[in-house]
Amino acid sequence: MEEPAQIKLGRLVWAGPLTLFISVAAVLLIVVLAVTILNPDAKFMPLTKETATFDTVFLGACAVFAFFCMGRYSLEPIREYRSLAWKVLLVSFIPDIALATMHWFGGGWPEAFALMTMHIAVWLFP
């Protein structure tokens, strides 16, 4: 039987901020591309650099903290974190779908797909 992978929590001191930096860079790249391609309405706040950066840093830090807690208290932290991250990714699409169908902030499906792309990009960098 294979022994579950363990994590070295001390590495989170540099890996956590590095993960946040890479996630913010990926999100900002997507924002720039989405704004260039879609030319969203000026009142569409979710595709502004400030909103995207704040959300990514805050929620990414929450994810790093969750990973830290799982690493400390779970028997199989990596497997359990990946399972949780997948579920959170799916739940994160709910507001995007609502935005597209209810036209929140003046957005539609193209803007929602851009936001979903940002969520997927952050999910890829655990």
Report what the structure shows.
With 126 residues, the protein is mostly helical. The chain has one domain. The chain is 75% helix and 0% strand. The protein is built from four helices and no strands. Helix 1 (12-38) runs antiparallel to helix 4, helix 2 runs antiparallel to helix 3 (77-102) and helix 3 packs antiparallel against helix 4. It is elongated, with a radius of gyration of 16 Å.
Give a short synopsis of this structure.
With 126 residues, the chain is mainly alpha-helical. It has four helices and no strands.
Query: Strand share of the residues?
Result: under 5%
Determine the N-to-C terminus distance.
26 Å
| C-alpha geometry | elongated
Instruction: Give the ordered list of helices and strands.
Output: HHHH
Gyration radius, in Å: 16 Å
Sheet with most strands: none
Structural class: mainly alpha
Helix content: over 70%
How many alpha or pi helices? 4
Low-confidence stretches: none
Mean pLDDT: 91
Number of structural domains: 1
Question: Notable features of this structure?
Answer:
126 residues; mainly alpha; elongated
Topology:
Elements: H1 12-38, H2 49-73, H3 77-102, H4 109-124
Helix pairs in contact: 1-2, 1-4, 2-3, 3-4
